[in-house]
C-alpha cells in the first residue's frame, strides 16, 4: 500500500506557495505518483489517499478500538 496525504502543514504550505488549494495539489501529486510506479518497475495493491472514504472510516475506528481495549484491561 502507498498513497498521498492531503492534510498537514507541509501540504498547505506547498499549495500556498503554488497559489493553489491543498486538494488540487494532492490531486496532481496522486496522479504523478501513480504514473511513476510503472516507470520504476514497482506495483502496489492499493493506493490510498487520506481523503478516501475507506481511509476516513478506518481512522475513525482507531479511537473506538483503543477505548474498548482500555475497558478490557
Strand order of the largest sheet: 1-2
Roughly how much helix do the residues carry, as a percent range? 55-70%
Averaged pLDDT: 84
Strand content of the residues, in percent? 5-15%
Helix segment tally: 3
Q: Would you tell me the structural class of the helices and strands?
A: mainly alpha
Low-confidence stretches: none
**Largest sheet descriptor:** 2 strands, parallel
Give the CA-based shape. Answer: flat
Task: Report Rg.
Answer: 16 Å
Distance between the termini: 32 Å
What's the number of extended β-strand segments?
Answer: 2
Order of helices and strands: EHHEH
Would you mind describing this structure in some detail?
With 73 residues, this protein is mainly alpha-helical. The chain has 3 helices and 2 strands, in the order E-H-H-E-H.
Summary, kept brief:
The protein is built from 3 helices and 2 strands; from the N terminus they run βααβα.
Task: Tell me the layout of helices and strands.
Blueprint: E1 2-4, H1 9-18, H2 22-40, E2 47-49, H3 53-71
Parallel strand pairs: 1-2
List keywords for this structure.
3 helices, 73 residues, flat, two-stranded parallel ribbon, 8% strand, mainly alpha, 66% helix
